[in-house]
Amino acid sequence: MTLIEWRDELRVGIPEVDDDHHALVDLINRLYTQLKSGQSAATIVDFLGELYASVARHFAGEEEIMKTHEHAHYEEHAAEHKQLLDDICNMIDDYQDGVLNDDQQMADRLDDWFCTHFKTQDIRLHELAK
Ligand SMILES: [Fe+2]
Q1: 6 assigned to some structural domain
Q2: What's the gap in Å between 10 CA and the centre of ligand 1?
Q3: Is residue 94 part of a domain?
Q4: Which of 27, 107, 111, 118 is the 20 to 30 Å CA partner of 34?
Q5: Is 37 among the domain residues?
Q6: What is the CATH number of the domain that holds 124?
Q7: Average pLDDT value for residue range 109-123
Q8: 10 belongs to a structural domain
Q9: pLDDT per residue as tens digits for the range 48-72
Q10: What's the domain range around 116?
Q11: How many domains does the chain have?
Q12: 24-55 pLDDT, tens per residue?
């Protein structure tokens, strides 16, 4: 099942970043499939943990690239990464506490989580690909 369709507009033109983003979209779609197919809470929490680890790795890589290229929006972008990692922790807590027990709500949060950051920050990485 597909929550986020991988498409050309999601490419920033830096192969490592594009490959990571594609892998993250795949991971989010796999999580969405698990949510929709009624997997156990333990499986979902494990998967969210896997997502957190992949995202943390990806953000560290993206931050290295920004530093190397002296990206003008580095501080702002890196601060948002911190916030986004906290958001995943909050999703895990909310899921475990039963506050976020609706599949669609979780899917909406994941979609918003990826797409909003992409549109506001990652899209500007295009500048570094030139
Ligand atoms: Fe980013």
Answers
A1: no
A2: 12
A3: yes
A4: 118
A5: yes
A6: 1.20.120.50
A7: 91
A8: no
A9: 999 999 999 999 999 999 999 999 9
A10: 17-129
A11: 1
A12: 999 999 999 999 998 999 999 999 999 999 99
Give me ligand 1 centre to Cα 104, in Å.
Answer: 24
Written as six digits, the tokens of 122 are 């990652």
Query: 12-17 long-range CB contacts below 8 Å, 24 or more apart?
Result: 12/122, 12/123, 12/125, 12/126, 12/128, 12/129, 13/125, 13/126, 13/129, 13/130, 14/65, 14/125, 14/128, 14/129, 16/61, 16/65, 17/61, 17/62, 17/65, 17/122, 17/125
Query: How far, in Å, is the centroid of ligand 1 from the Cα of 106?
Result: 21
* 125 C-alpha to ligand 1 centroid (Å): 8
Q: CB-side exposure of 41: number of CA atoms within 13 Å?
A: 12
Distance CA 110, CA 59 (A): 16
Q: How far is the CA of 61 from the centre of ligand 1 (A)?
A: 10
